[in-house]
Amino acid sequence: MRNLTVFIIAPVFLFIFLLFITDAANAAGGVLIFYLVMLASRAYEKYKRTKAEKDQHR
Questions:
Q1: In the 3-class helix/strand/coil scheme, how is the chain assigned residue by residue?
Q2: Given a cut of 70, is residue 9 above it in pLDDT?
Q3: pTM for the complete prediction?
C-alpha cells in the first residue's frame, strides 16, 4: 500500500497543487523531479542494504 501512495497518489496531489500555483509544464516538471528523487532514494537504500550485507559476511 505504501508504494501505491508514494508512486501514484502523491504525484497526483503534487501535480494538482503545482497546477494551481504555476502552469502545466512546470507542474509536470515538478512531478518528474519528485520521481527522480524517489528513484535516487530507493537506489541509495538498496546500495546501503547490499553494502551492509557484504560487510557482514566479511
A1: CHHHHHHHHHHHHHHHHHHHHCCHHHHHHHHHHHHHHHHHHHHHHHHHHHHHHHHHCC
A2: yes
A3: 0.79
